[in-house]
Structure formats: C-alpha cells, structure tokens
Amino acid sequence: MQYSTDDLHAAKEAGIITPPQLDSLLAFLGGRSTAIPAATGPKFDVVHMLWYTGALIVIGAMGLFSTLAFSAMGGWALTATALIYAALFMWAGHYLWTVKNLLTPGGLLIAVAVSMVPLAVYGVQDALGMWSKFGKPGAVREFYIWVKGSWVPMEIAAAIAAAIALRFYRFPFLVFIAAFALWFLSMDIVPWITGAKFGNWETSRKISIAFGLAILAIAVAVNARQKSGDFAFWLYLFGVMTFWGGITATSNGTALTKALYCAMNVGFLFLAVFLGRRVFAVFGTIGIAIYLGDLAQKVFKDSLLFPFALSLIGVGIIALGLYYHRHQSAIGAWFDQRLPAALKRLRPANA
After folding, report:
1. I need a surface site. Which of 28, 130, 157, 253 has the fewest CB within 10 A?
2. For residues 222 and 231, is the Cβ–Cβ distance under 8 A?
C-alpha cells in the first residue's frame, strides 16, 4: 500500500512523528524514484473521462431529453420508470463498489441512481396535482433552465438523496450533485420567501454569488478535515463556478468596477498557490484575459491592431503559465516564507 504526504502530515499532527522527523522522511522519499504520490484526487486520464462522460450522458438522457416522452405516460408511470432505473443503477454501482472494488465506475452509477430522484418526485407531483401557486413547471428537462418555485420539492429530494448515498458510499462526485441541487434551491426558494419575481436575472446572479461564497467556505473547512478522498475538489469547482460566474455576468460595469474585477482574478492566482487548488488559477486567468480583452477593445476600437493586441495578451498569458510551471516550487517556497503564522495554520497540508 502506498501513502501520500497527507498521511505523513496527519501522523505529525497526531504526535506520532515530530516535525524534524517529518522533514527527514519527506527529504528521503523525495530522492527515491518511487516517491510518495501526490494527494489523492480525481484522475482525468482517458479511462476516467470515459466513465464520467458515460454517467453524464445517462443523467442528461433521463433528465433533459427523455422526460417529454415519459411524461406522456402519466405521473405514476414516470415515477415507476425513475425508481426502476434508480434501483438498477444502485444495484450495479453497489456491486462494482463492494465486490469488484471499482470505486469510480461504481460511485458514478450510484450518482446516476441519485439523479433519478428528482424525476421520481416530479412524477408524484404530476400524478397528485401537487403544484403550488407557481403552477406546473413544465417538462423535467426545463428543470435545468428555468427558475420556478415548483421545483423546490425536487431539489430538496435530490440533496437528501445525495447526502444519504454519501453516508454509505464515500464518493466525492456525490458532493457535486448535492451542491448543484442546493444551488438551484437557493435560486428558487429565496424569491419564494421574499416574494420577488421568478426569472429575475439580477436576483439570480446575486444569489449565485452569495451561494458560491458559502460553498467556498465549506470547501475550505472540508479540505482541512478530509483524511482520504478529495471531497473538497467538487466543492471548490462548483463554488468558484457560481461565484466567479455571477461576478463575471455583471453588465455595464464602470472602469473602476472592471479594475476591481481584474484585481479579484489576480487574487484568485494567489489563492491557487495558497490553497493548492488549480481551479482558482484557471478561472482567475480567464477573468484576467476577459478584462484585458475588454480593455484592448476600448483602446484599439475600430483599429486593425485589435486582433494583434488580443493575440499578444494570449501569448503573454501562455508565457506566464510556462514561467509558473517551471518555477512553481520556488514560487511556492517564496510564498510560504512570507505568509503570516496565522495564515499558515489555515493553509491545507497538501497545498
């Protein structure tokens, strides 16, 4: 069995080894060809990409494309179909997880089973006529498009199902499904409570920003406590997507607000180093490119130099990425030396 550097840091925190012993072990293992692998996290090789793609296609087929045909059969038939699908995928996932020890494909099949829950709830609502004053929301495929109060029971059921599955199968992708359902719930239930108009883009944008910040705070807490499996990965990804996306979607900003937006994205680059999470670097770099592109468009408006200016920005960002790739160890060490002690304690061990 191989162990990661996280395990050694955990041994130090538990008092099993001293800090000098930890440094000696890391230095010794770092010089061996069979060095300790990096902290366990989601893989993105061809096999895993095929597994994730297949699972997402199944989820999309049931949730986006097939529901019009199933809805024509009636609510109870729709619920029965969803429950049969869920049972089959849960059985197959459990078999792969427990018998074959294939955690990733097994976990993905369990996630597919969880994704059937909103479909089953929709069928019950349709069969019993349990629609609120917001009316029947339409086909289930519109669940991913429109903000409507009638979706709330489906979103709550999806989040609960993901939490129950996570209790028995410690598969990080289930966290993403729960976060996705809760994000939709935040956009549906807040207008419901406040009486604001559904479908108001500005309200949804602000809710996404607040929700993204909350998810990022949870991700930091989870990252500090997790012992095995990278459950914080999906939380960081979803939190950054919703927060950054809500900020980026701001329209008609002033020069000052756009400059602050660029500063936020620069801060994302520092967060990437501090937390050891590349997702901040990816979105931060995209944000900086958006800002510089907008600035170049204004400076070189109606000029033949505009495409060359954009090309120069792109080349500069690529060069920055190459520089960081070559010197990331030195940059990380410089960054770590200058961190205040209080911030060092907040920094994850695998950063």
Report:
1. 28
2. yes
CA 215 to chain centroid, in Å, comes to 9
pLDDT single digits (tens) 49-68: 677 778 877 777 776 555 56
Domain range annotation of the chain: 1-38, 43-251, 252-351
Amino acid identity for residue 181 in this structure: A
Query: Is the full-model pTM beyond 0.85?
Result: no
Torsion angle of C-alpha atoms 137, 138, 140, 145, degrees rounded to 10? -70
Tokens of 57: 């296609």
> Residue 265 class from Cβ within 10 Å (0-12 exposed, 13-18 middle, 19+ buried)?
buried
pLDDT tens string 185-224? 777 776 666 555 555 667 777 888 888 898 888 888 888 7
Q: Identify the residue with better confidence: 313 or 154.
A: 154
Among all chains, which residue has been given the structure tokens 């996570």? 166
Within 10 Å of residue 188's Cβ, how many Cβ atoms?
Answer: 25
Pull the structure tokens for residue 335. 């960054």
